[in-house]
Write a structure and sequence with these properties.
The complex is a heterodimer. Chain A is of the alpha/beta class. Chain A is built from 23 helices and 18 strands. In chain A, the strands form six sheets. Chain A has a five-stranded parallel β-sheet with strand order 11-14-17-10-18. A four-stranded mixed β-sheet of chain A has the order 1-2-4-3. A three-stranded parallel β-sheet of chain A has the order 5-8-9. In chain A, α2 packs across α3, α8 packs parallel to α18 and α20 packs parallel to α22. Chain B is 43% helix and 12% strand. Chain B has 16 helices and eleven strands. An eight-stranded mixed β-sheet of chain B has the order 1-2-6-5-4-3-7-8, with helices on both faces. Chain B has a three-stranded antiparallel β-sheet with strand order 9-11-10. In chain B, α6 runs parallel beside α7, α7 crosses α8 and α9 crosses α10. The chains are: A alpha/beta, B alpha/beta. At the A-B interface, α8, α15, β18, α20 and α22 of A face α6, α15 and α16 of B.
């Protein structure tokens, strides 16, 4: 009269083991569910009942009590449909409880008894403490990523029950996916013509993982540059790929055919995105935000000046630490959020405030626009690039530019050098190790001293410039940082006056 | 700048000016011909020294009583100390070089910080305009001011946002030598920077030029003080130039004050599509002479008309670039002809971007160019 089925729910990007206990006893027919289910979880009663009946099984005309343990953890979503159904069947003696003992299950049920995939299977599969787990057919590859062995798939409740009873063929195990990824890199850098500075800046940003601010009028190619940048990045290392896959799975982002997110993701949230959508959170369940979905890849914020200042300033802590800690009254989650921030904005609301000299905005309008971007956030951008529209003759008749593959080879070399130093990218060199990892030649030191004396640099700026100089020297194959690298890094840091709201 | 010595008369006037709602007319009336220290002591006892004439509008016995209360609360040594500490000199009509001797509405006391020598008789031009200016207007104010300063005139303005600020910045940029020929007449106390956006400019004018105010220390931005300060700007100058003004605005008040004093009013023509130029264009329609270049103003100030071939005051690139390489000379030369983006520089020189970027930092450190993002500006 009693059965337990192992399952799990996802919170943030972590799976939490849940034990579904079902008790069927004499009494008035009824159904009670306890253990902090949310609305969608509570609705499972009707789905489960219909699915059992559609599968030609029997719904017990007795008192059914369901407990979702641990009782303090809030359960949400439909992923517990399948374990509840199995529990009801076992408690009403339609499946032998011993056969269910080594099996965990997760999945949503259709009214016809079919099994549907749920969000976060990567996180869920790893959290179920049983030797075998059963998941919906379309989620098999996803579940197998975090659990190389013991994942079995079923298309319907009936198929699963038959297999458990020994009436039908056993379920087929799923092997971890290892297929090759299609090499879609989102456009080639060769298409960016007549903008040598922007091409170079994108290469430097990709090579060193430096946050990049693009300022330019509409149509100058800012979005084009950002999408090319992702294509230059090397494939993710296994731990990063796993972390990215977990986040994408938990957030319900479609995973690539191969299952594992190998290519660095590009996330480009719209500027109307709320704080929660950006950094994660939510009242019903803790969902990863866009910055976590961009883990290992690029977060592209187009129209930076139109984002709410509150949302932008919330980016500062994850930018520093590489993780975001989302805390709500009852729950807290730490989500991965190490991303390369690429932001694009117009110089002013009319968009013509750059070199063109056709700006129609008053100073006050410009100042208000610039105020959206707080000083501390601006400080996080190692490369500030003013993008000018290319000369028209370059677009049509310009010489062919280097394709992405050539540039990516240089980027990969610099990334490999950083890995030898034990950092993910040059931009992540901790301040304490900068003297050791980015030693300066005396001439380079003199240039920095002069820039500090002239008020061009702050203390934080100094450390940032040295990491960019490290990347530039690496691109040139120089070990000890030379004067040219430091000088060029300082030039890359020059702030467009429009971003500060002032006149030039 | 030597530490100013505050005389008893000046200190007493500063103290009286601190009382509630005390403008120049009320202060003159209150003094009524008596020496200021005497008037202050009398006020503390609730009396009025000297023989005041008919009371100015708004002065009631209740107000006088309030002044007396204010005066009793003041601590004269502390005020003197604050003036000395901030390097603020107090000028009175008896001070040598008092610039408002013939003015119809002179201030009763003036607070000054900076180079008092700028108040000596000489060619002074007011450059005034709206706070809500266009980029073109700001540029015009900066350039005119720089050229006026280089031509030998002292540029006077109000250190407000917009045109005023650009005018001071232009005069400061004209020379490295002190004093820089610019006077800012402000509406607040000299220890109260307003607007905050001009904080740096305020410090520079106080350091290299001259800051003037008739408001005592601690006075915040009170609306009535700004039109009052406009008359002081007009009263200092032989020419008042309105660079940009909306149909209504403080700049036009300054122009009216100038007209009342019989000094010249000039205006910079603006586009008919720009509302920021509507007021200044109206001045032109009313018959003010137009300002098309700095020479127009200099001529009005009595300078000789410049030789026609004079193309401006830009430092010659050839002389500056002598010890630079050919690439650096080319960059500085291009930048001096107008703002240029790095991409254009690459197309011009054919040099690789990293080399150019390193070069730009060198030229920036030398002070030959500025970088506005990836755009190269001269100087």
């Amino acid at each position: 009269m009693f059965a337990t089925v192992a399952s799990a729910v996802v919170e943030g990007v972590d799976g939490h083991s849940v034990s579904v206990e079902v008790h069927v006893s004499q009494g008035l027919p009824g159904y009670t569910m306890v253990g902090l289910p949310d609305a969608s979880c509570r609705e499972s009663r009707d789905r489960v009942r219909a699915a059992i009946l559609s599968s030609g099984l029997v719904w017990p005309q007795k008192r059914v009590t369901i407990n979702l343990a641990p009782s303090g953890l809030r359960k949400h979503g439909a992923s517990l449909d399948l374990p509840i159904a199995l529990g009801v069947l076992a408690a009403s003696d339609q499946i032998e409880a011993e056969r269910l003992e080594p099996v965990g299950a997760v999945g949503e049920l259709g009214l016809d008894g079919s099994l549907r995939p749920v969000k976060g299977l990567v996180c869920l599969a790893g959290a179920i403490e049983r030797p075998r787990i059963v998941v919906p057919e379309r989620g098999g590859a996803e579940a197998a990523i975090s659990r190389p062995e013991g994942v079995e798939v079923a298309a319907s409740l009936r198929q699963l029950v038959d297999a458990l009873r020994g009436d039908g063929p056993p379920l087929s195990p799923v092997l971890p996916p290892d297929g090759c990824e299609s090499d879609d890199r989102g456009g080639d850098l060769a298409e960016v013509r007549g903008q040598p500075l922007a091409r170079w800046a994108v290469e430097v940003a990709a090579a060193g993982g430096h946050h990049l601010l693009l300022v330019g009028p509409p149509g100058s190619g800012k979005t084009m540059l950002a999408s090319r940048l992702v294509g230059l990045l090397p494939d993710l290392a296994r731990p990063d790929a796993l972390a990215a896959t977990r986040v994408h799975s938990a957030a319900g982002v479609t995973l690539p055919a191969s299952g594992l997110v190998r290519r660095p993701p590009l996330r480009a949230p719209h500027h109307a995105a709320s704080l929660v959508a950006l950094v994660g959170g939510g009242t019903a369940n803790l969902r990863p935000g866009e910055i976590s979905c961009a883990h290992g890849g690029v977060l592209f914020l187009d129209e930076l000046g139109e984002f709410s200042p509150v949302a932008l300033d919330a980016l500062r802590q994850p930018l520093e630490e590489g993780v975001v800690r989302v805390t709500r009254a009852a729950r807290a989650a730490t989500l991965p959020a190490r991303f390369l921030l690429v932001a694009a904005m117009n110089p002013c609301p009319c968009g013509e405030g750059g070199t063109s000299g056709r700006c129609r905005c008053t100073e006050q309008v410009r100042a208000r626009y610039a105020r959206r971007l707080s000083g501390p956030l601006l400080d996080r951008f190692d490369i500030r690039l003013e993008v000018a529209p290319p000369a028209s003759h370059m677009l049509l008749d310009g010489p062919a530019e280097e394709p992405s593959a050539v540039v990516a080879a240089r980027v990969h070399r610099v990334r490999a050098l950083a890995a030898e130093r034990g950092v993910g990218a040059n931009a992540l060199i901790p301040p304490g190790r900068i003297d050791e990892l980015a030693p300066l030649r005396p001439e380079a030191r003199a240039v920095l001293r002069a820039a500090l004396a002239a008020g061009q640099l702050t203390g934080r700026g100094l450390a940032r410039v040295r990491t960019v100089a490290r990347t530039l020297a690496d691109l040139n194959g120089i070990d000890e940082i030379d004067e040219a690298s430091v000088s060029a890094a300082l030039s890359l840091r020059a702030v467009p006056a429009s971003v500060l709201g002032g006149p030039r | 700048m030597t530490a100013p010595v505050v005389t008893d008369d000046a200190l007493a006037r500063s103290l009286l000016a601190t009382c509630h709602g005390m403008g120049p007319a009320r202060l003159s009336w209150l003094l009524g011909g008596a020496p200021a220290p005497e008037a202050f002591e009398a006020l503390r006892r609730g009396r009025i020294a000297g023989e005041p004439g008919p009371a100015p509008p708004g002065v009631t016995p209740a107000l006088v009583e309030r002044w007396a209360t204010d005066a009793r609360k003041l601590d004269p040594p502390a005020v003197a100390d604050a003036l000395c500490r901030l390097g603020v000199a107090v000028l009175t009509p008896d001070s040598p070089g008092w610039p408002y001797a013939d003015d119809p509405h002179p201030p009763a006391v003036l607070f000054a910080r900076g180079h008092l020598g700028l108040l000596a008789p000489g060619p002074r031009a007011a450059l005034v305009g709206t706070r809500r200016c266009s980029a073109v207007g700001r540029q015009a104010a900066f350039q005119l001011s720089r050229e006026l300063a280089q031509g030998g005139a002292v540029v006077v303005s109000g250190l407000a946002a917009g045109i005023d600020g650009a005018a001071h910045a232009g005069a400061l940029a004209a020379t490295d030598a002190d004093p820089a020929p610019t006077i800012a007449v402000v509406g607040t106390g000299l220890d109260r920077v307003y607007p905050a956006v001009n904080r740096r400019l305020w410090a520079q004018v106080g350091e290299r030029g001259l800051l003037l105010s008739e408001s005592p220390l601690g006075t915040g931005p009170e609306p009535w003080r700004f039109p009052a300060r406009n008359r002081l700007i007009a009263g200092l100058c032989a020419v008042t130039v309105v660079v940009e003004s909306h149909v209504r605005g403080g700049a036009l008040l300054t122009a009216n004050e100038a007209a009342d004093r019989g000094t010249a009013v000039m205006a910079v023509p603006g586009a008919i599509t720009s509302s920021a130029s509507a007021g200044s264009n109206q001045l032109l329609a009313d018959g003010c002479p137009p300002v098309c270049c700095a020479a127009d103003v200099l001529e009005q100030l009595g300078f000789d008309p410049p030789a026609p071939a004079d193309t401006g005051n830009l430092p010659s690139v050839a002389t500056q670039g002598d010890d630079l390489g050919p690439l650096a000379r080319l960059i500085v030369g291009e930048a001096s002809a107008g703002a240029i983006h790095v991409d254009q520089l690459v197309a011009l020189t054919g040099r690789p971007v990293p080399e150019l970027m390193a070069k730009l930092q060198h030229l920036r450190a030398e002070g030959l160019i500025r970088l506005d993002g990836s755009t190269i500006l001269f100087g």
